[in-house]
Write a structure and sequence with these properties.
The structure is a single chain. This protein is α+β, with helices and mostly antiparallel strands. It has one domain: 2-Layer Sandwich (Heat Shock Protein 90), CATH 3.30.565.10. Helices cover 33% and strands 29% of the residues. The chain contains four helices and five strands; from the N terminus they run βααββααββ. Helix 1 packs antiparallel against helix 2. It is globular.
């Protein structure tokens, strides 16, 4: 059986908690001895996913953001979910520069950033029930 370590975090969808999520995930994945660049990539992807939950998932309300991070051998898997508005068309939402922000304050690059910094990205969403993002990153031993 594969060795597995995991953490689970649940916290309110307030922007102050985005930094907490970044820090918690980077501390958790430190056991894989990632490079500074890998840590920064992971933190950026987590920030984008958590920000999406806050800005789009819960829009003008508050809810809970759910994060589970798992390490299996040398692979970090991060699941970030909300029980908010959901995404009507995931493939459209994943296109760079697409945004549902009516004020135009968001660039619409969150999913593109997650894809660029992680090895894989999967998004599942149901309108009115929420969205789940699953990202993986392989951290090879240095040496």
């Amino acid at each position: 059986m594969k060795s597995q370590n995991f953490i689970k975090l649940n916290f309110p969808s307030k922007s102050v908690n985005e930094a907490f999520a970044r820090s918690a995930i980077s501390a958790f994945c430190a056991q894989l001895d990632p490079t500074v660049e890998q840590i920064n990539d992971i933190k950026t992807a987590v920030s984008e996913a958590v920000t999406n939950c806050i800005v789009h998932g819960y829009r003008d309300t508050f809810g809970i953001i759910y994060i589970t991070a798992t390490i299996t051998e040398s692979t970090l898997t991060i699941k970030i979910a909300d029980k908010g508005a959901g995404i009507e068309d995931v493939s459209k939402a994943m296109q760079p520069l697409f945004t549902t922000d009516p004020n135009g304050e968001r660039a619409g690059i969150g999913f593109a950033v997650m894809q660029a910094f992680m090895d894989s990205l999967k998004v599942k969403s149901t309108v009115g029930k929420g969205t789940r993002v699953v990202m993986t990153k392989k951290i090879l031993p240095r040496g």
